[in-house]
Design brief:
The protein has three helices and 13 strands, in the order αααβββββββββββββ. It is of the alpha+beta class. A hairpin with a 2-residue loop joins strand 2 (135-137) and strand 3.
Length: 268
């Protein structure tokens, strides 16, 4: 009994010490957390801007390399499939899909770092598009005949596509919702040509000319029952037809030794 009475005050004293220690640690943690938050809040705006510019430049430099790799993989997959090496072609296909996902992540990170990713804004498809022999230039992705630029995904109406594109001479050709929609056709530069698809052959005289060596903004608005083409805000043609079954990638290509440069393709 005497031992028990002696132990109870010791236990009580130990409890007080533990409580005081815990309280002190809690205060210390709160103080440290406040200091850390204050340090984060105190980051100078110039540093934040510099970091964003660095991330944007890094990702922008990486995307053309990734795009070229994806394009090479696409060509390799087709060669292997043609030779009947299906298992090897499947392995290449899986690698290409992996790099396309990586490209999407890189593109998304670029937009986040520059504040471009906002709800309802058009999304660029350039990060994951392929162009076998395209060349990245300061103006954009340049290519000639036989090297179409093709989106990685299929699209269905309703969809609005904006092309920021230029030609050094003739033949800006779009391949969505038609086999080809031609601006600056080599035979009649001012005629807007359309071949294939629901509006096949419904050409528009005097509506197909665009300036040479100057970027234009071509908007293609495809609804289930009609398609409208505009250039720099001016409507060039509207076709009423059944576009509801369209499901295909976006394509841009050219012909007759022309060089076409695409700065961006936006989809909404």
């Amino acid at each position: 009994m005497r031992v028990g009475r002696q132990c109870r005050p010791q236990r009580s004293k130990l409890g007080v010490i533990v409580k005081r220690t815990c309280a002190s640690l809690f205060v210390l943690l709160i103080t440290c957390a406040g200091s850390f938050a204050a340090e984060l809040t105190a980051e100078p705006p110039e540093l934040t801007q510099a970091r964003r510019m660095f991330e944007q430049a890094s990702n922008s430099a990486l995307l053309p390399i990734q795009r070229k790799y994806a394009s090479d993989l696409d060509a390799l997959q087709k060669r292997l499939a043609t030779k009947g090496e299906l298992e090897a072609a499947l392995a290449v296909k899986e690698e290409r899909e992996r790099i396309l996902e990586t490209m999407e992540s890189t593109s998304a990170h670029t937009k986040l770092s520059t504040g471009m990713e906002r709800r309802g804004q058009p999304i660029s498809i350039m990060a994951t598009a392929t162009c076998p022999n395209g060349k990245q230039t300061p103006d954009g992705l340049a290519f000639q005949e036989g090297s179409p630029l093709i989106s990685a995904k299929d699209f269905k109406p309703p969809v609005k596509i904006t092309y920021l594109v230029k030609t050094d001479s003739t033949n800006i050709r779009l391949g969505y919702a038609a086999q080809e929609i031609i601006f600056n056709w080599e035979h009649k530069p001012n005629e807007l040509r359309i071949g294939g698809g629901p509006a096949n052959g419904q050409h528009r005289a005097g509506k197909g000319g665009v300036p040479v060596n100057q970027f234009v903004r071509i908007e293609q608005d495809v609804q289930p029952d009609k398609m409208t083409i505009s250039v720099d805000g001016e409507e060039r043609a509207t076709w009423s037809a059944d576009f509801s079954n369209v499901k295909q990638p976006i394509r841009v290509f050219t012909a007759k030794n022309a060089t076409v440069t695409v700065k961006d393709i936006l989809v909404e």
